[in-house]
Specification:
Layout lengths: L8 E2 L3 E10 L2 E8 L5 E7 L6 H16 L9 E7 L3 E7 L6 H8 L4 H20 L12 E5 L5 E5 L9 H4 L14 H12 L3 H4 L6 H17 L9 H10 L14 H10 L11 H9 L16 H4 E10 L3 E8 L5 E8 L6 H14 L10 E6 L3 E7 L3 E3 H8 L4 H20 L12 E4 L5 E3 L7 H8 L19 H4 L6 H17 L9 H10 L14 H10 L11 H12 L12
Antiparallel strand pairs: 1-2, 2-3, 3-4, 4-6, 5-6, 7-8, 9-10, 10-11, 11-13, 12-13, 14-15, 15-16
Helix pairs in contact: 3-7, 3-10, 5-8, 7-9, 9-10, 14-17, 14-20, 17-19, 19-20
Length: 591
C-alpha cells in the first residue's frame, strides 16, 4: 500500500494537501473536497496482519457505526471507503487545534475547573457511544482534539470512536506479560507503551471489555491532566502491565495538594481494578469530579463547635461502637476527605464510661500500617468527643461477604495476610484488636486491601458488658461482635494476643467458606457451641484451599489458647509459608 502525496485524488472527490500526522493505525492527511471546496481530514487505516478481506469488512462495519455517532464532542465522520492501492480510509471534519496530548506536553497540568470542563465534554461523548453499544478502547489524550470555532469557543472532540477497536490491543487479543509478540521499530514500542498507559486492566489481561473500560482510560487521562503525571509509568510493557493489574495509583494530591478531595475520590474510583467498582457512566464520573451537589457531602446539623471550623461536616455514613456516629467530612485547609467518629452527650447510655474509652482508643490507634486506618486528629469538647481518621471509600467486608458469600483462595489469602499484618502491628504497640468484625473492616474501592476501621479497645469488660452481658439468658440476641470472640472471652476471662489469633481465624474462616463458625441464634447457645461443637475443616466448603492453609486456620481456632499460635508474629510467619508454597506442616499444625 502506497503513501499518499500532495495532489493525489482519493475517490475522485478528495484532493490531498499535506500529511499532518502518522499514528499507530495509519496516516492522517489534510485534504480538500473538490466539489465543495472545504477542508477535511482523511485517515488511512493500515492493516498489518490477519486476513485482509476480513479486516476490511470489519473496518467498514465499524466505520458505519462511527458515522452514526452525531455529537458535538465527537468528530464527525463524513465518508469512508476503500481506495485501491491505498486501503481503507475515513473522511472526517477538520479539527484546527492541537490534541490534548500536545497541550499536556506544552503546558503540563491543567487548572481544576478546566479539567472538569474537558471531562464533562468527553463524558457526554462517551455516554452517547456507550448507549449505542460502542466502546472506544483507545481513549487517551492523543485521541482528544481541540477545535476553535469562528466565534472563539474552544471544544474538545473525541476521535477514532469505534475504530480504536482494531488498534494494537484488540489486534493482539491481549498484551499480557506472557505475550511473546515483539516489534522491531522503536517508534512502535513507544506507541504501544503510550497506548498501554491508558488501557484498562481487563484490556491488558485479555478479559472481556465493557463501557467501564473507557471509564478507566478516562480516569488515567484526568489523573494526568490534574497532576501532569500518569498514574503508572514504566520503561517496558511487562512492568507497565503489572502496575495496571496489581498496583494502586498514588493519590493525585501527592503530586498536587490543592486538588479537591471529591475530585481525588472520583479519579481513584474511575481507576478501580474491578470494572464494577468504577462509576456506572462517564457522566457520573464527570459530575463527581466537579463536585456536583448530589456527589458532595450534605451538611449535617450538629452543635455549634470549633470542630466545624476545621472540618466541613458531611453526611452520616455509619454507626460505630460505643454508640458513636461516623460522618464523612472535608478538612477545610487541605481539602482531604476524612471520617469523623463522634459521641454526643445525651446519645450515649453511659457518657462518662464511653468518653473515657473513646479517648483512650483515640490515643492508642495511630499505628503505622497500611491495613490500619490512620488517626489524624482527636479531641474533646463540652458536648462531644471525636476521632478523625482517613476516609476509606468502598464497602465493608460484611457488605461484600453478604453479596459474594465467599472469596476465592487467591483473593481471600491476600486479605487474610492484610488482617494478620495489621494485628501484628497492633500487638507490637501493646494493643489488641478484639471487638473487630467484618462490619468494621473495609475493602478499598479497588478491592486490593483490607483496612481496619476501628481497633484498640483497652479493656475486655468494655466489650463484654455491652456485647455479651448475662450469657445465661437464653433469649438474648447475639451482637455481631460475639461471633468472633474467642471462647475464653465469652466466659469473662482476661484476653491476651491469642484471643486475637482466634478472631483472625474466625474472620478468615468466613472469608473462604462464606459461613460463620457457629449457627447459634442466642448468646447462651453461642457459648455452648463454642465449648462443645467441633469446627468443620474449611475445605468442606472451600475445596480449593491448600491443606497447609486449612491447618493454619484450624490452629487459630483451637478452643484452648495454648493450642493456638503463640502470637501474631508466629502466625504471620506460618501464613507467609503457606502463601510461598512451603507446605511444611510442622509450621502450622496444632501444637
Amino acid at each position: 500500500m502506497r503513501q499518499l502525496q500532495p495532489g493525489d485524488i482519493v475517490d475522485r472527490r478528495y484532493k490531498i494537501e499535506a500529511l499532518i500526522g502518522v499514528g499507530g493505525m495509519g496516516e492522517v492527511y489534510r485534504a480538500r473536497r473538490t466539489r465543495l471546496g472545504d477542508i477535511v481530514t482523511i485517515k488511512v487505516i493500515r492493516t498489518r496482519s490477519g486476513d485482509a478481506r476480513t479486516r476490511r469488512r470489519r473496518f467498514m462495519a465499524e466505520a458505519r457505526m462511527c458515522a452514526m455517532l452525531h455529537h458535538p464532542y465527537i468528530v464527525s465522520v463524513l465518508d469512508f471507503g476503500v481506495e485501491p492501492g491505498v486501503g481503507p480510509y475515513l473522511v472526517m471534519e477538520y479539527l484546527n487545534g492541537p490534541s490534548l496530548r500536545q497541550e499536556l506536553a506544552a503546558r503540563g497540568a491543567f487548572d481544576v475547573p478546566e479539567v472538569c470542563r474537558i471531562a464533562t465534554q468527553v463524558a457526554s461523548a462517551l455516554d452517547l457511544a456507550h448507549s449505542q453499544g460502542i466502546v472506544h478502547l483507545d481513549l487517551k489524550p492523543g485521541n482528544m482534539m481541540t477545535h476553535r470555532y469562528s466565534a472563539g469557543e474552544i471544544v474538545y472532540k473525541v476521535i477514532d470512536f469505534g475504530i480504536g477497536g482494531i488498534g494494537p490491543l484488540r489486534a493482539d487479543a491481549s498484551m499480557s506479560p506472557s505475550s511473546s509478540r515483539t516489534r522491531s521499530a522503536a517508534d512502535d514500542d513507544r506507541r504501544i507503551l503510550v497506548t498501554m498507559a491508558y488501557a484498562s486492566p481487563e484490556q491488558l489481561s485479555g478479559e472481556p471489555v465493557t463501557s467501564r473500560s473507557d471509564l478507566y482510560s478516562l480516569g488515567v487521562t484526568i489523573y494526568e491532566l490534574l497532576t501532569g503525571n500518569r498514574p503508572f509509568t514504566a520503561s517496558d510493557s511487562r512492568s507497565l502491565i503489572t502496575k495496571h493489574l496489581r498496583e494502586l495509583p498514588e493519590p493525585p494530591t501527592r503530586h498536587r495538594p490543592d486538588i479537591p478531595s471529591w475530585a481525588e475520590a472520583a479519579v481513584l474510583r474511575a481507576l478501580a481494578k474491578d470494572p464494577q467498582s468504577r462509576w456506572e457512566t462517564a457522566s457520573d464520573f464527570a459530575r463527581a469530579l466537579s463536585g456536583a451537589a448530589e456527589t458532595r457531602p450534605t451538611a449535617v446539623a450538629m452543635s455549634t463547635s470549633p470542630l466545624v471550623d476545621v472540618y466541613e461536616l458531611g453526611e452520616l455514613v455509619g454507626r460505630g461502637r460505643l454508640e458513636s456516629h461516623i460522618y464523612r467530612a472535608i478538612h477545610r485547609a487541605t481539602g482531604h476527605a476524612v471520617a469523623i467518629r463522634v459521641i454526643l452527650r445525651g446519645q450515649s447510655v453511659d457518657w462518662a464510661a464511653a468518653r473515657i474509652s473513646f479517648m483512650r482508643e483515640a490515643r492508642m490507634t495511630p499505628v503505622n500500617d497500611p491495613s490500619i486506618l490512620r488517626v489524624r486528629d482527636y479531641g474533646e469538647e463540652r458536648d462531644l468527643v471525636y476521632v478523625v481518621t482517613d476516609f476509606v471509600p468502598g464497602s465493608s467486608l460484611r457488605e461484600v461477604l453478604d453479596r459474594e458469600k465467599a472469596f476465592s483462595w487467591n483473593v481471600g489469602s491476600r486479605f487474610l495476610r492484610d488482617l494478620i499484618s495489621a494485628t501484628r502491628a497492633l500487638h507490637t504497640h501493646g494493643l489488641l484488636a478484639f471487638g473487630l468484625t467484618p462490619s468494621i473492616i473495609r475493602l478499598t474501592t479497588d478491592g486490593e486491601r483490607l483496612v481496619m476501621s476501628s481497633a484498640g479497645v483497652a479493656e475486655i469488660h468494655e466489650v463484654l458488658t455491652r456485647e455479651i452481658a448475662e450469657p445465661s439468658s437464653g433469649e438474648q440476641p447475639i451482637n455481631d461482635v460475639a461471633f468472633y470472640l474467642a471462647p475464653e472471652l465469652l466466659v469473662g476471662e482476661k484476653p491476651d494476643g491469642r484471643a486475637d489469633i482466634f478472631m483472625i481465624g474466625a474472620i478468615g474462616y468466613e472469608l473462604f467458606t462464606g459461613r460463620r463458625l457457629f449457627e447459634a441464634k442466642t448468646l447462651s447457645q453461642l457459648v455452648s457451641d463454642a465449648f462443645s461443637v467441633e469446627i468443620k475443616d474449611p475445605r468442606s466448603y472451600a475445596s480449593s484451599m491448600p491443606e497447609a492453609a486449612a491447618l493454619c486456620l484450624m490452629r487459630c481456632l483451637a478452643r484452648r489458647p495454648d493450642q493456638r499460635f503463640s502470637d501474631a508474629v508466629e502466625l504471620e510467619n506460618a501464613w507467609s509459608a503457606v502463601l510461598s508454597g512451603d507446605s511444611a506442616l510442622n509450621r502450622v499444625s496444632p501444637a
